[in-house]
Amino acid sequence: MTGTTPDRATSHRATSHHEGPAMPTYVGMPSFPSAARAAVADTRLRGNLAHATSTIRGRRAEAVAELDDWAALRESGKQIKDHVLANLGHYLRMLEERVTAAGGTVHWARDADEANRIVIGLVKATGETEVVKVKSMATQEIGLNEALAEQGVTAYETDLAELIVQLGDDRPSHILVPAIHRNRSDIRDIFLRSMPDAPEGLSDSPAELAEASRRHLRAKFLSAKVAVSGVNFAVADTGTLVVLESEGNGRMCLTLPETLISVMGVEKLVPSWRDLEVFLQSLPRSSTAERMNPYTSAWTGVTPGDGPGEFHLVLLDNGRTATLADEVGRQALRCIRCSACLNVCPVYARAGGHAYGSPYPGPIGAILSPQIRGIGSEVDASLPFASSLCGACYEVCPVAIDIPEVLVHLRARAVESGPRHPLERTAMNAAGWTLRSPTRLALAQRAASASRRLVGRRGRIRRLPGPLKAWTDTRDAPVPPPESFRAWWARTDGGRTEERDK
Amino acid sequence: MNAREEILGRIERVAPRRDAAEVAASYDRIARDYLRRHHDDGVLDLFAERVADYRAMVRRVTPDELPGAVAELLAARPGVHAVPDGLPAGWIAAADAAALAHAPAVADLDGMAGAVTGCTAAIAETGTIVLDHGPAQGPRALSLVPDYHLIVVRAGQVAPDVPEALERLDARRPLTFVSGPSATSDIELSRVEGVHGPRTLEVLLVEDGGR
Q1: Element at A295 (helix H, strand E)
Q2: Rounded to whole angstroms, how far apart are CA atoms A84 and A81?
Q3: A469 or A169, which is more confident?
Q4: Closest by Cβ to B139, choosing from A79, A278, A306
Q5: Which DSSP string do the residues of B45-105 spell out, in sequence order?
Q6: How many CA atoms within 13 Å lie on the side-chain side of B153?
């Protein structure tokens, strides 16, 4: 048997403000700052990330600059998605009707557990114990592979990067290239260690690594009876589903098995076939910096004599309707998963994808995960703060999601309702008490000036004493001035006697 | 309440249901200020250049030259080549008949050297070829499983850009958009040709709209 069963445990579920369990949080996932500190210290990881993200940034800029009307495509993409969100029920009903008319079966899932139960039931009904998978963010989000494994069904990831992650018993760290944190020699080592049929003397040349993956998966494609996919776009008025990919593993999975099960978030709709003229231009250029990705497959229900005879579509809510209810936050549902925002983000490039504790890392993850899962866990409450608000993510977004705006909005929500640190509350109460009395404020300011004794190298305070230590666990504190403004004013009579004093 | 009713209920508490005419009117107000095409002239040159950018071979031929070109390209790849139903007999008139398998079973495709098909449309701007798997194109597996794909594109099938190409397609048919050979960007985000789909793509562009 080839491949390993991943045991990325996802049994710990974040508490959520939504009904039912949402996207699983990785076990023991620390808040973003703690996870990021470890990642930033990993120079090899930083090197891999810096190399990959800077390569793609440059190429994407060229691919986008080639189209004079990029701004217009971006605006149309945004308006199409907003129109869908404003009429989501209408288009979901239409999609359901058209898919059903074309011979498919539509299922609805309120949350991750329900979606997993539906897929497990469909796989079991075929009597199969293996499925091949096309890379899919929705099934990562619901932890489908783990749920299938618990039921004795092995899921084989067929996308090269997903395969690297699966064989390396690892977690995805990027939306488009889940193994972006691995360089070519890491990948060779993983293949030699975990791919039973890896050729001896495998080198780290990308072409040889791709060839090894081709040989490894070929027999699986030819024998698989059930495939599971995600969906890039669902066209409501025709019932057509669309998957964009590069390697041909998607075509294999969508074409060769007898049963196809596709899982899509309810927001993945476009109203009409013509709307793809926007996204088939903006998504490939924004994502892999290509004029067009190598392969795009579109299918409508089932076609006798060509492809799977049975097709199931699972429509997944899992926190999306709660996100829709937030007037500022709902724009995150426009996302077409291109991952351009990851590649330009200075925080992502240094911290890497794992620190975000979610299948959705980077800027989009920082606004999507807390909304889908709710701000119940430490990692979700910390994600809106995992940004310098520089705005590069908004600039590159092909559907103009104002990520900084949503981050600031979610910060407010995290402060209001998140698991606020008890010290923060104490500190804020103390600040209020101090600021209400001029005498107390003067005393506090004198104490602050005294803290200059703590100054470390480079003129920053690296570690504050006592309970304030927690603040400097993740940041340096600025050095207070030797004298407060109030003290200076009193001493120099508003500056008039300063010269004399000096 | 079942999942469907509950999800639609949650949605429509936030985005109330409107009648179809209202939704259609709102759809029509979506701004579409982007271009229908980025190039007016030299569409065939552009198509050939953009396909070649993906490291696919493109050769421009006249209708008379087509059978010889097909025969030559297939002969360069020893083995049996899959031929779909409806492929014009003239295209393969000069090829070695013993090296052709007409409409083979899916199970036999893995042992074949390649496949030769037509297409339904092409896009110059992006160097894309679209198959709708009708006559001369075969079911999807035929041009997927073998390691080599030769596509004959007629000049009249080439649309300048994505919007006009999509207008020519029937969304209800299975569609495959092919832009170069199979590739991956999964290793250090650099494109490498050749993973699961055909690792070699060759294109014969037939001018004069001949068959």
Answers
A1: strand A295-300
A2: 5
A3: A169
A4: A306
A5: HHHHHHHHHTT-EEEEE-TTTHHHHHHHHHHTS-S-EEE-TT--GGGGTTS-GGGEEES--
A6: 29
* 8 Å CB contact of B184 and A75: no
Which of A177, A295, A325 is nearest residue B14 as measured by Cβ atoms?
Answer: A325
Domains of chain B: 37-209 (3.40.50.10420)
For residues A272 and A91, the answer to whether their CB atoms sit within 8 Å is no
In degrees, rounded to 5, the angle at the alpha carbon of residue A376 between the alpha carbons of residues A371 and A378 is: 105
Kindly give, in sequence order, each residue whose CB lies less than 8 Å from that of residue A475, ignoring residues fewer than 6 positions away.
none
pTM over 0.90: no
Confidence of residue A204 (pLDDT cuts 50, 70, 90): very high
Here the ipTM equals 0.96
Cβ atoms of A39 and A347 within 8 Å: the answer is no
A270: nearest CA partner in chain B = B27
CB contact under 8 A, B177 and A295: yes
Q: Which of A180-184, A335-339, B53-57, B87-91 has the lowest mean pLDDT?
A: A180-184
Residue type, A243: V
Beta strands in chain B (DSSP E): 57-61, 81-83, 100-102, 114-117, 121-123, 128-131, 148-154, 158-159, 175-178, 183-184, 192-193, 200-206
User: Which residues fall within 8 angstroms of residue B64, CB to CB, at 6 or more apart?
Assistant: B210
Helices (H) and strands (E) in chain A, counts: 24, 10
Report how far residue A373's alpha carbon sits from residue A439's, in angstroms, rounded to the nearest whole number. 46
Residues B54/A294, Cβ–Cβ less than 8 Å = yes
Chain A residues lying within 8 Å of B184, measured CB to CB = 160, 206, 210, 246-247
Are A184 and B187 an interchain contact pair (Cβ–Cβ within 8 Å)?
yes
- Would you say A312 and A103 are in contact if contact means Cβ atoms under 8 Å apart? no
Asked if pLDDT for residue A441 goes beyond 90, the answer is no
CB-based contact (8 Å) between A328 and chain B? no
Q: Mean pLDDT throughout A393-397?
A: 97
CA distance B162 to B153: 16
Which residues in chain B are closer than 8 Å to A322, comparing Cβ atoms? 10
State residue A444's pLDDT score.
78
Phi-psi region of A187 (alpha: psi -120 to 50; beta: other; left: phi over 0): alpha
Q: b or e along A163-198 (b: 16 or more beta carbons within 10 Å of the residue's beta carbon)?
A: bbbbbbebbbbbbbbbbbbbbbebbbebbeebbeeb
When pLDDT is averaged across residues B163-179 and rounded to a whole number, the result is 97
| % residues pLDDT > 90 (chain A) | 62
CB A184 within 8 Å of CB A209: yes
B52 vs A: CB within 8 A = no
Task: For residue A26, give the DSSP letter.
Answer: P
| Count of other CB atoms within 10 angstroms of residue A466 | 6
The predicted pLDDT at position A180 comes to: 87
